[in-house]
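Researcher: Go.
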Amino acid sequence: MGRMRAILIAGPTASGKSAVALGLARATGGVVVNADSMQVYADLRILTARPSPADEAAAEHRLYGHVDGAVNYSVGRWLDDFSALMAELDRAGRLAIVVGGTGMYFKAVTQGLSDIPRTPDDVRARVRAQAEGVAPAELHARLAARDPQTAAGLKPTDPQRILRALEVLEATGKPLVAFQGARAAPLLAAGSWRGFFLAPEREVVRAAIDGRFLTMIEAGALDEVARLAAQNLDPALPIMRAHGAPALMAFLRGEMSMDEAIARGQADTRAYAKRQFTFARHQLPDFRWLAPEGAGAEIARET
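Model: Structure:
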């Protein structure tokens, strides 16, 4: 492998990324490392399609299910966890096979993350307490009144990013956009990694998403969501937006039928897959696109 520290495997949900990563890990003795922002959570193994216990037994897996759903986990925190893990793997001389569907994780680790100061825990808690029960549009209006430049670039329907902007403003007195130009050096330097994006045909992805969602329901995803709902967590937390979770919670509240909840979950996941394609096309220029069929063998040849 020479200077190769990591193989990065991105792609839309339900494209077969995890199977390819597992095969490479078994062939190389490498470690499968999670780069999916929902699979970090312990609460939703089934709904987020985390690797099965059998897969985890077949090769070492890291950064899966290690975060409590009540935690506001972010790309910055993932970078911290990933940095510590890479130091461990480098000492052991092992290859990281990084796999997931969160494009921002891949962009941050290969291009660097905007150098935004960390928000102190007490500031974050205060901002979120003040936002509890407030509609996203109202939060956006609050941000626009204090930081119109940042607010102009955010959707009024995106509470997570709005809250992040409010936290930065509260902690630093400066708008979020003031920090977005400078970037920290990437954790993976050029030449130490190769990136691939698995790109199946769109119709194949859509069919796989719909079928997998039904399989998740049969495997107990509704029970997982019921346990999550019983925690009464802040609805702005990332885990509360896991694909399928809002619709299944609506079913549990009696607001829609099960068929409607399933259809909504499938549609939300299909829309996410479309965004994953778009992000990779514009934001991950150094990733080579591959068809999933035979991808593992082709990646092995190239690295």
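Model: The mean pLDDT is 94.
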